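User: I'm preparing a small set of examples for a lab meeting where we compare how different chains pack in three dimensions. I only have the primary sequence for this one, and I'd like the structure in token form so I can line it up with the others. Please keep the answer compact; I'll paste it straight into my notes.
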Amino acid sequence: MHAVWQLYWRLPGRPDFFRNHAQYDQIVRDVQGYPRQAEGRATIRGVAVYWICGSSNAYTITLVTSDRGHFGKAGYLYSDGPIVRKTGDAYSDVEAPGDLWMLGEQVAPNWWTVMNNLN
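Assistant: Understood. Below is the structure token output for the 119-residue chain.
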């Protein structure tokens, strides 16, 4: 039942990622195909997407798959390189574009879940 609820709300996790990873992979390819810029944001295939392209042309991309207003946001973090963890911040423990994010589980190589319950 938990997996059905997760899929209904498009909450990030293994069931949603398994079902929608082709769409998420295509969004990453779309962003990587844009002209290079240090950072950006767009709505791609109905998903809010934020990205940073580092000096080594490595991308860090956040896909917001669930925005429940005051109940928080959640989605996925994709990174070409190692993710950068933050310390000493009670509201954010990972450097990710778009918002203050807490890192969740790794769901595939280069992919993690993220959430923000600050709203």
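A couple of notes for your slides: The two ends are 27 Å apart (CA to CA). The chain has two helices and six strands.

User: Perfect, thanks.
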